[in-house]
Design goal:
- The structure is a single chain.
- The protein has about 800 residues and is an alpha+beta fold.
- It has 20 helices and 34 strands.
- A 7-stranded mixed sheet has the order 3-7-1-14-11-12-13, sandwiched between helices. Strands 9-17-16-15-10 form a 5-stranded mixed sheet, with helices on both faces.
- A hairpin with a 2-residue loop joins strand 26 (about 590) and strand 27 (about 595-600).
- Helix 15 runs parallel beside helix 16, helix 16 crosses helix 17 and helix 18 packs across helix 19.
- It is globular, with a radius of gyration of 28 Å.
- The site of cytidine-5'-diphosphate has 24 residues, from helix 15, helix 16 and helix 18.
């Protein structure tokens, strides 16, 4: 068998760990040896420890705070209260969504777990004891735990600190064509309706949040080691909020033990540790405990949806209407592009050829922790895709059309790109029907339907659920996407040393996704330098170029593109060096992986390493020495990966317990840099999808007490519960505008997966006429739905006994 030139190049590239190589993750060498360097591993001379006193009540006026008993405990250095913060104008801070958030409560507490005071002491145990010695006199107020309570005319106003805020509404926002959508509904043969709740969930990284602030009075420099996914944004925020000169601030984000969106916002603990270090002139460490993390840091979802689809009886979707009510908790602190009040919820139906749509959204304050963070999701896309795929299933069933067929007939066709979605995005590539076909074949769709019918005759409930997703990944382009006015783009800085080895730094920040491995693969692809010869560093604002950080699977679409572009800049200079070394004109020089050669005499060539040496030792007259450069990349569009997830389940009608029989995943994320890492990302996402649909759940009792503030109540699936996955990679649609054709992948499975699980259970119980069971599909909820033949919707009531 002969090898083509392309195959031979691909093999050469695999040898040096370039594109398509399932190179082992280089970061794991230190992680599996226990040699990672997390924020809690940082120990500085003279370091003190900070603990936070949190509110036991969800809504109460603070009448007084007495810190005298805490101060009397030996080893206590400082007790911070809201009153003290206020004297420095730091009692409140701006959020990333143009709201304000209390750093330490002054007037009222507004959710259980809110930060009320901080103690800084010699060790964390003394600090914790001293927190308990602080006496706070609260006057309880009526508590609001749902948007409906918050919207009631006589509801107490939670944000009475805000001038002009007379109710609990945060925003009313809309997008789309209302009149056109009304007309589509007038022409419909069938109108399909569904109401859903996507419950409150929590990213719950294993490592909680924390910081070590180190202010040096002699140099006036502030160094903060912290668990942040976006160090440069934190540097800018600290400069503006604390009014410190930006050049004096260094933010270092060391290894991060999982972020999933939880480590994007700015939390009071960070601010208090910084102020404490400035006041005490000593390093101050704050490490949050698990309950603190679950009860107070950025939660996700908590959105109610009313959806309607206008349908023609042959199955064509004519229009879609959606309304969402989002429960944002006490402060509107979503980390999302400024222009979009409910994130990218309007990406719903992007993969379907829907002529017209209209979305309205309302945000409401409640007495719950703030947030609405994008938990493994590009700003509310998880909710959008869940609603979309649940509505598609309901519509197909209302029309009596097969689930798969209904999707196929309404997909945007492969030749219809670029496609303007009904709510304003521009999608540019995809092979939706092909992905569906691969999935249906893999699961054995036709056979399963027969098996299902046979099983039903014997009283067994089998179900099959399909979900598709397309996610706008890679915010932004700077025309449309900014956070607090800072345009969204990203960066890479590459320095090739004289021996041909290199160091690459980017404005992204890996939290486990493997950037140290994959970025080197992009450089290897572009320059032919073996990936093992390239070291990747992220997370230090003193050394990394400015970037917007890592969330919303934006790293590969934006920072990854910057890595390719900076490599190309280096290659352009190396070409000049090669021409000089080969004594030919630049136009006569050709490039192949890792080598320049003379077009007319291909055996005469120089390696990229020889060019690197020449950049420091033998450059042509007039050329600036060195081989290094920086690229800032502003993507022309988002990238649009696509996926089909298909699940089969069996539901036990006697108990409501459901088991996953099989799960097939077909992901098209364009060119895969590292197929093994991509598979790991998909498996992780599917596991979180399974968790959200089956067990992961934070709810509140009527007094606003958080139920789900520890791992006994907030369940994470272990390897024992996690189903097996069958992954398919045969559909590859390169992104037309990304320099190496890659699309994001980090979140796809967590975004698209939940609807597949829920649709499968709903399919299993479809004979009962039930339209909806809201997540999580706990056995008692499924049992209730089957036994009483009724929908089980909304946040489950929490028993008061
Ligand atoms: O922003 P984040 O790193 O969370 O998400 P991502 O850009 O989707 O990348 C997740 C991981 O998968 C990174 O290590 C990427 O380089 C890798 N990846 C890949 O190998 N091929 C792709 N087409 C997309 C991502």
């Amino acid at each position: 068998m002969t090898t083509t030139a392309d195959e031979s190049r691909a093999l050469d590239e695999i040898k040096i760990g370039g594109l398509g190589s399932s190179r082992k993750r280089v970061e794991d060498d230190r992680f599996i040896r226990g040699k990672g360097n997390y924020t809690d591993d940082i120990v500085l001379p003279g370091m003190l420890h900070m603990e936070i006193l949190r509110s036991p009540l969800a809504h109460a006026r603070i009448k007084s705070i007495d810190t005298s008993r805490a101060y009397a405990i030996p080893g206590v250095h400082l007790v911070l209260t809201g009153e003290m913060m206020a004297t420095r104008n730091l009692a409140w801070m701006p959020t990333l969504s143009y709201d304000t958030q209390a750093v330490l409560a002054t007037d009222k507490v507004r959710f259980q777990g809110q930060e009320v005071a901080c103690v800084i002491a010699d060790d964390p145990y003394i600090a914790k004891d001293a927190c308990e010695a602080i006496e706070v006199d609260y006057e309880p107020l009526p508590v609001i735990v749902s948007p409906w309570q918050g919207l009631a005319p006589d509801a107490p106003v939670i944000r009475d600190d805000k001038v002009g805020q007379a109710d609990n509404v945060i925003y009313n926002w809309e997008v789309g064509d209302e009149a056109g959508t009304d007309r589509a509904f007038e022409q419909a043969d069938v109108i399909s309706k569904l109401e859903l709740h996507y419950p409150r969930s929590h990213p719950s990284p294993i490592e909680c949040c924390g910081s070590v602030a180190d202010f040096n009075r002699a140099t006036s420099r502030l160094t903060v080691y912290m668990t942040t996914q976006a160090p440069h944004i934190i540097r800018a925020a600290v400069a503006m909020v604390a009014e410190l000169p930006e050049q004096m601030i260094r933010i270092v984000s060391p290894d991060i033990g999982g972020g999933f969106g939880n480590k994007v916002p700015i939390y009071p603990g960070y601010v208090c540790s910084i102020l404490a270090s400035i006041l005490l002139e000593r390093p101050v460490k704050w490490i949050e405990d698990k309950t603190g993390n679950l009860i107070s840091t950025g939660f996700a979802r908590d959105v109610y949806l009313k959806g309607e689809m206008a349908l023609r009886k042959d199955g064509k979707i004519l229009g879609v209407r959606m309304h969402t009510d989002a429960d944002h908790g006490a402060f509107f602190s979503d980390a999302q592009p400024s222009k979009f009040k409910i994130g990218l919820m309007h990406s719903a139906f992007a993969a379907y050829d829907v002529p017209v749509a209209h979305l309205t959204a309302r945000g409401v304050y409640t007495n719950k922790a703030p947030g609405g963070v994008a938990y493994r999701c590009s700003f509310r896309v998880t909710e959008a895709m869940f609603f979309q795929e649940r509505m598609v299933q309901a519509a197909a069933s209302d029309l009596g059309i097969d689930q798969a067929e209904f999707r196929r007939m309404n997909f945007v066709r492969d030749d219809a790109f670029p496609h303007r979605t009904p709510l304003g995005f521009l999608t540019d590539s995809g092979q939706y029907a092909k992905c569906l076909d691969v999935g249906l074949k893999a699961i054995g769709y036709e056979n399963f339907r027969e098996e299902q019918a046979e099983a039903r005759k014997r009283g067994r409930l089998l179900g099959l659920g399909i979900s598709t997703m397309t996610e706008p990944l890679g915010a932004g382009n700077s025309r449309e996407y900014d956070i607090l006015g800072i345009k969204m783009f990203d960066s890479a800085d590459l320095k090739v040393h004289m021996t041909g080895k290199a160091i690459l730094r980017t404005g992204a920040k890996s939290q486990g996704q493997g950037h140290e491995t994959t970025w080197a693969q992009i450089v290897a692809h572009e320059l032919g330098i073996p990936a093992d010869d390239i070291i990747v560093e992220e997370g230090d604002t003193d050394t990394a170029p400015f970037g917007m950080g890592t969330y919303a699977s934006r790293s590969t679409p934006v920072a990854g593109a910057a890595v390719a572009m900076v490599s190309r800049k280096i290659r352009a200079k190396a070409r000049k060096l090669a021409a000089h070394l080969l004594e030919v004109s630049e136009e006569d020089v050709e490039w192949e992986l890792g080598r320049f050669y003379v077009r007319s005499s291909p055996q005469r060539g120089v390696s990229i390493q020889e060019c690197a040496m020449a950049a420091y030792s033998n450059m042509p007259d007039g050329m600036e020495p060195g081989l290094e450069n920086t690229a800032y990349y502003d993507p022309p569009n988002l990238t649009w990966p696509f996926a089909v997830y298909i699940v089969t389940v069996e539901v036990d009608p006697a108990t409501g317990v459901w088991d996953v029989l099989r799960m097939v995943a077909v992901d098209d994320c364009g060119v895969r840099i590292n197929p093994m890492i991509v598979e790991g990302q998909i498996m992780g996402g599917l596991t979180e999808a399974y968790a959200m649909s089956s067990m992961q759940f934070i709810t509140f009792d009527a007094d606003g007490n958080c139920v789900g503030s520890n791992y006994m109540d907030y369940l994470l699936p272990s390897a024992w519960e996690t189903p097996g996955y069958e992954l398919h990679s045969e559909v590859v649609t390169p992104c037309p505008h990304h320099p190496i054709g890659a699309k994001g992948i980090g979140e796809c499975a967590a975004v698209g997966g939940p609807a597949a699980f829920v649709n499968a259970v709903m399919d299993a119980v479809s004979d009962t006429g039930i339209r909806n069971i809201d997540m999580p599909l706990l056995p008692d909820r499924v049992w209730e739905a089957i036994t009483y033949r009724r929908d089980v919707s909304g946040a489950p009531p929490v028993r008061q006994d």
